[in-house]
Amino acid sequence: MMRIVYVNGEYVPENEAKVSIFDRGFLFADGVYEVTSVLGGKLVDFSGHAARLRRSLDELVMESPVSEDELLAIHRELVVRNGIEDGLVYLQVTRGAADRDFVYPTDATPTLVLFTQSKPGMADAPMARTGLSVISIPDRRWGRRDIKTVQLLYPSMGKMMAKAEGADDAWMVEEDRVTEGTSNNAYIVKDGTIVTRQLGEEILHGITRRAVLALAREAQMKVEERTFTIEEAQAADEAFVTSASAFVTPVVRIDGATVGTGTPGPVATRLREIYLEESRRAAI
To answer: Is residue 18 annotated as a catalytic residue, yes or no?
Structure first.
């Protein structure tokens, strides 16, 4: 079945969707994006994604082509038109099309595109039961990782490095400290304490991260926001990642070393349960 996608004010079949070859997202990666999960036909934490989108646009001195209410309506329309029960809505805003020049154009109209991805049974992914295997790689991205730009080449390379070693993903390391996964935030658990890197320009300010930490604190779990090393992670009782599509997913091997018992631990398992429960309850 051919998807219906959104391109600059129009809903069109995906094979008819077109963006200018002069679009700065294509030429300079001059754009930002968001991915919102869909559970039971409803959007998970849309307001959080919309707020982060505004922040990313502000940091790059870009205008949003639509209001937040209009953006919500587009998301909902795409979910309905494509019959998405469980899946994702991808959104991308670029500075628009202009003749190639490193200097920002002053008269370009922002480009806005959205599309859906259907992922039946996303909440029951096998990796939640078996856990992930990750490797560590140097973090060679640019310094403003807090802006959710479309510059994803190195994280994609990281995924391929992991695949080449028979692993599922990679955790990036800078100055001997874990920053984050290629497409997720990273955590360890030691003696009942959840440890994850503090917010800053070094990592993406994950929407799922924020929600999971809030739920952990509500459940009287101890949370410590600080840096940690790969060695510390290997010696932890548990490890896990969070993202809009992975929710809370355990990590059971790091650079070949078994974490804890080598199976998903009770903290990650419980956090996934309460996160999905709350996400379904609050979805719009």
So the answer is: no
